[in-house]
Amino acid sequence: MNATATKARALSLVAEPLLVSSLGAARLCGVSVRTWQALTASGETPTPVRLARKRLWHVATLKVWAAAGCPSRMKFEAGSAGRFEDSGNGNP
Question: What is the Cα–Cα distance from 22 to 43, expressed in whole angstroms?
Fold first, then answer.
């Protein structure tokens, strides 16, 4: 592999964040931030994590949630307990 290909591969590995804000989550899911915040407040999105006073969502969790048909938080967390293991490579 030449130097350019190695650099491109290294950049592609860090191009996708592990955690996203409500703006990032909304963009990933194709809704407005206001809609995302309303969905979150009503328990329709996966549970965010807290980091430095911010609410963030795991990108891998959002992908699994979307693939499952965007169920409510309660259904998603009850159905995903132990079933969806992160393989460690960023893909669910």
Answer: 14
